[in-house]
């Protein structure tokens, strides 16, 4: 059984999320949750919530599925839209600030 969960418009750059997502890809759900609890990166909390959401989706879809039997098949991190802001500088100039967003797609399967 394949279960998907998506997180869109996360206000963190994809590069930062990808470093944490690579740690949990291919692991069991219980192991991935344990890893994310101890990783000291800001993007670990949204990923933790996303995995819990995917497990909840799986148990709602099929009551026989046990959360311990699920495996993180893939986690896809893509860039979302970028918010463009301006920072005033001296002599009438301005610097552009890019506030990046991220879309994450998580796929769980049975072992």
Please name the CATH architecture: Alpha-Beta Complex
| Structure classification | alpha+beta
Q: Roughly what percent helix? A: 25-40%
- Shape category: elongated
What ranges have pLDDT less than 50 throughout 5 or more consecutive residues?
A: none
Strand line-up across the major sheet: 1-5-2
Please give the domain count.
1
| CATH class category | Alpha Beta
What fraction of the residues are assigned to beta strands by DSSP? 35-45%
Distance between the termini: 9 Å
Q: Tell me about the biggest sheet?
A: 3 strands, antiparallel
Sketch the topology as an H/E string, one letter per element.
Answer: EHHHEEEE
CATH superfamily: Ribosomal protein L22/L17
Average pLDDT metric: 93
Q: How many strands?
A: 5
CATH topology: Ribosomal Protein L22, Chain A
Radius of gyration: 17 Å
Number of separate helices? 3
């Amino acid at each position: 059984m394949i279960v998907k969960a998506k997180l869109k418009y996360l206000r963190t750059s994809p590069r930062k999320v990808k470093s944490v997502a690579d740690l949990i890809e291919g692991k069991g759900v219980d192991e991935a949750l344990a890893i994310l609890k101890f990783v000291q990166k800001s993007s670990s909390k949204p990923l933790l919530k996303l995995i819990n959401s995917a497990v909840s989706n799986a148990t709602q879809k099929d009551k026989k599925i046990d959360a311990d039997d699920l495996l993180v098949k893939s986690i896809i991190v893509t860039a979302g839209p970028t918010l463009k802001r301006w920072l005033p500088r001296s002599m009438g100039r301005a610097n552009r600030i890019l506030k990046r967003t991220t879309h994450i797609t998580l796929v769980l399967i049975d072992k």
